[in-house]
Amino acid sequence: MTEAVRDTNPFRTLIATKNEAAAGRTLALDFAWVPSALFGALSTASDEHTHQFRVCERFPLEAASVTVVEGATGAADAAMNKENQPPATSHGSAPQSARFLCQGCHTWCFVTTTSFRTTCPHPGHATHHFHRADGVPHHQHDDFYCCGCDAHIQWSTHAPIVPNTVLDHLQQTRSLIRTYADSMQNTEQKPTLTSVLLTMRLYIKDLLLKDERREINTLNHNFVNRIGLDPASIELFGLAGFSLVDDKMVPPVGTLNEDALNMMYEELTASLYEIQSNTRNALGATERPLAEPVILNDYLGCQDALEHGSTMHTTRADMDERCMQLGITSQASDELIIWAYQQRIDEQPERTTEWFDLLVSIAAAKNTDNLQTQVAIERSRGLISTADIDQAYTHFGLQRNMSIDDTLLIGLHQVKASDEPHQKSTHDERLRILGQARNSHNIKHYLDHGYVPPEQQEEMQPVAPEDRSPIGLNNIGNTCYLNSLLQYYFSLVPFRDVVLDMNDYVENEDKADWQPKKIGGIEVDQKEVRRAKKFVDLLRQLFMQLQETDKRAISPEYDLAYMALLNERDDNSTLGNASDAKEGSSAVTLEESVSTLVESKKGSDDEPSRDDDVKQQPDAADIPRVEVQDASDAIDERISPEDGAEMGPNAARSASPENEAQIDATMEEPTPLATTSTTPAASAVVASSSSSSGDANASNKASGSNTKQHQQQLNSMMFGKQQDVTECMGNMMYLLEAALKPEETTAGREQTRDMVRDLFYGKGRQILTYTDQQKTIKKNKEEEFSHVIIDAVKAKHLYDGLDEYFFADKVENYREGQEAVREVSVQAFPPILQVLVQRVHFDRATANVYKSNAFIEFDKEIYLDRYCDAHFDSLAPRREKVAAWRARLAQCDQALHDLTANPAYPMPVPDMLAATANILQEYQDSDELSQQYQQAMQLLEDEIAQTRAVIEENTAEAKKLRHSINHEYDDMTENAYLLHAVFIHQGQANYGHYWVYLLDHHADQWWKFNDSVVTKVQESEIFKDTTGSTANPYFLVYIKKDKLAQLVAPEHSNQDVDMTL
Length: 1061
Fold this sequence. Notes:
- The structure is a single chain.
- The chain is α+β, with helices and mostly antiparallel strands.
- It is built from 42 helices and 32 strands.
- Strands 19, 23, 27, 28, 29, 30, 31 and 32 form an eight-stranded mixed beta sheet that branches.
- The chain is elongated and about 130 Å long.
């Protein structure tokens, strides 16, 4: 083998990252190596230096030869028939030892073998397969044994006798050689590094060969001219055993350490050869032969034809690393690669996927028929590689490092199968790979039978009372966010009490004098009440199980999930055409999701219903109109002329003073305060039920029966709609309100008070101010809201989002170019404040819906005094002051962004300018450019200083502004709310997983409800910075502090709860 081929060491990267301080290297204990790979690993030092070991004159060796055991080269074939192989045999070689010196760093290696010049005799082994021996941590050598025979290797490395520091000290006061110029000038002869090494080598030779132990006079002319007395030369002589006494070097006394002297002699010779090679001066130093063939063949028993039999020589680092993990080199033959791969599987079968992944990558790099055939054979056995797994995840738009449950994968498969039915076999194969990689029984069952088995394992295990924690809810098919909502509603005492005691609260629609009522301006008849009562009854059964079960988790009824997730419109459409439903889920539903979060519905029975408009699905041309970037965009869309003829520009210009007051009073523009009971889902349910006919039994059959059909349809129809939690809340709240007897109604039978509205609804006032014909017009609109919305396009604090929502916000292009200002105040906050973090947005540039993962910081306790209508006028100056601070803060942040995070530049501006200055330094010595250079450098230095000063000033000012904004309202703490629930979404806009954190206020303990798994968590998990993660809060729930005991009491209570504020 040539030195050029062996010089590239494929083990450098691994060993350099796993070095030991003392030994300079270490080997992974779970690795096994063929001889060539073991030598490559052992030859790599910790500093990425590859040793070039040489045979030494003072430690002679016989000519290298190797005894090849007959039949060993056929081991790859024999490995396939191991059960018929004889046991390993001993070849009983006496231990042989040798030492070798690295030409470069002078490190010594000592090697001892019990299989001198012999390859592995085992018929199932292509070559020796050395494992590192365990249990020898205190030995100064590494022990390796071959698993196919009794071959035993000991390897150790030792520092040189003459440290590099001694040579460095000698050269600091001496030239390397005496040059020709020195000789011609007849300068006084002075010692050189070369003369010191040559003379020292002669003294050592005299000691070893002649045993001459004469004293050396350091004042002697020859000593002075060739060596010179100084601390460096004294240290060098001391290494050979000499000591300085009265200007004389006294030789060693007693028995000589011949090993050390011989090693020192070889090291000095190696240094002289290096000087000779660099200066081309003949110094009499001969190059020592490479030790690699000797070590490999004589001491490690290398099978050269197999271990270096590849016809392809690659320099790819990834190829070298992959081969190294199989314990071979990249020069191994195909036969040896296959054998080493099979050895890995036999020795560590639990890592089969990892080994197969290596085989696949090596086969792809070498592209030989033998390796590609072996890969095909392994695939036929059902093996999968990491590359296969990555490809499967990518097929479903995921990444392997994401935290993904089986339900999400099955749901994505269903969407793929529906959208691309002609590729169903590919979708099935990709999901099967993931199921195998995850060892998922659910995925296997789904692929084999077409549905996911109910999660019954938790239900079958009773839990002792002392070990009980809150009960989990099994995921019965893409219901993780419904489970989160159910757990949240169950934690609210008034909600739970009404559901459990539903007979005391629900309608009796069979009474002779019962009359239809209205919810959100839409009539609810007997049929719809019966359907709603069925839903509440299913919810009651679930709540009873959560209270009474001794299981860790229970499963909601499929009919309950079906009714909560699907409104009647969805019910009819999905049963008729499931594929259409799925297609809509990936396109229309996301748009509706964005729109639903900001659309405000008509809440008065005097106002016409816009249900027909709501039910129409937007086409591609309408998509940009549903974008919600921030509150101002949303309001701008809502008050545009398209929202109603009454508020159009023509109507405004023709309005008389008489009807202007009426317009001001009613303010028919929609308000940003969000409601849920009249979402598109709820409206569609009512409209559909109102227009249908049939008796009560027909209604129940249409809405709640056929559980098996619902079970089969639930996964395929609802996967794409998971992202819109507000729609599910709207469905549930509508059904509850439809079932409950109203506590108050209007003359037009509009239901204005019930448990739902008492708990979740507040009352707000929207003030719209604009100038028309030199006249300032202010319009007020009062409306109830069930949640508020904060935008999450960029990172912010919750208060920042609420300020954006409530405080003055410009509405551009109002009434044909006029500018209006919208403000919102709250006349009455609800006992339970629900905050929706709007993360789903529409990108106009790409025409895609996306999810923002911006970090929204929030506090455990918040104060809402600043938003109360009672303080609206008195706080106006403070709002203006905060607005001015925010404007200035935005300028500071933009300046910092431009200078430190501008995507147009590869690095921050000051660093870029400094890099430019470094480049210009190359021209510093040019006379022609001297003046221009000085001017350019001065300009750059001034610009760097100025830019850094701007960054420092803006950073300090931004910090001060944030502090002022954050503490402006510290004196207003009467309207306090405590955090109760945090809903988390993990994933992207079109898929994801959901769970909820709920606080046990009495024990101050947070619980994580992740479907069937319920665990205690530290509070830090709730408030951690989620920057860079796709798992982040999208729905927050705060409870009024002075109502806490009534709303979230730990035990079930029948006491009446006062919901008034």
